[in-house]
Each structure stands twice: as structure tokens, then as C-alpha cells.
Amino acid sequence: MSTPTEEEAVKYMLQIYGNVTREQVEAMSAEEQKQLYAEWGELNRTPGLTPGVEMDDPATATTVRVDGGQTLTTDGPFVETKEALGGYFLIEADDLDAALEVAAKVPTARRGGAVEVRPVVER
Predict the structure, then answer these.
(1) Is the distance from CB of 5 to CB of 94 less than 8 angstroms?
(2) pTM, two decimal places
């Protein structure tokens, strides 16, 4: 694992965990939806941020495990959770504080969700 010098930006993955469903967003007023999409648009214009992808509902997932050479699949997420991974971003930031500042701007974080910020290991 390489250690960045002080001049180098560090890449962080911002994993977005939320509990707001697509149906809940669709039930918002047109004005609320417009505001939400404007917040996401502003976030996507953040310097150093690489937009990721939005994940589909956890109920559409299939979990794969291998036990004793046997592949086992389970429909949906393996555990029940209040928050599910909804998507991610990558950002190059000067330091953790700068990455946390961006994470605080994620609309999901202000709507009851959470954003996990983790450095990316570059080899």
C-alpha cells in the first residue's frame, strides 16, 4: 500500500446507506423532488468527485456464499437492516476532513441515512 505525500490527494469511497425508497421519493411533491435532484446535481459538480451508480432496491439482490466448495445463493440481502447500500461516489480529497465535508452534503445523510467514508487502497 502506498502512502500519499502531503501534496497528493487521497481517494475516498463514500458509500451511501439510506432508508428512503424510490416510492417515497416519487410520493414527494414536485417541489420536494426538484429540491432533492438539485442537491444531487450540486454534489455531482464537486471538484474531485467521481459519481458512482445508484443501486436497485435490496430486495432485488442475490447474496452468494461458498461453503465447503458449494455455492449457496440467497435471495435478497443476507441480514435485515434499516439502511441499505444505495450507491457510492469516489472522491479525491486533500484529507479526511475534506472528504467528510463532502459526505455531509449527501442528501441521504440529511434524510435519516448515513455515508461511510473509507480511504481507497491503491497498489
Answers:
(1) no
(2) 0.77
- Written as tens digits, the pLDDT of the chain (123 aa) is 444 444 678 999 999 988 777 788 889 999 999 999 999 999 999 999 998 888 887 778 888 889 999 998 888 765 566 678 888 999 999 999 999 999 999 998 888 889 999 999 888
CATH dotted code for 10-119: 3.30.70.1060
Taking the domains of the chain in order of start, what are their residue ranges?
10-119
Any alpha helices (H) in 45-78, and if so which ranges? none
Instruction: Count each helix (H run) and each strand (E run) in the chain, helices first.
Output: 4, 6
Give just the sign of the alpha carbon dihedral 111, 80, 90, 8.
positive
Measure the CA–CA gap between 91 and 123, rounded to whole angstroms: 17
Burial 93-105 (b: 16+ CB within 10 A, else e): beeeebbeebbee
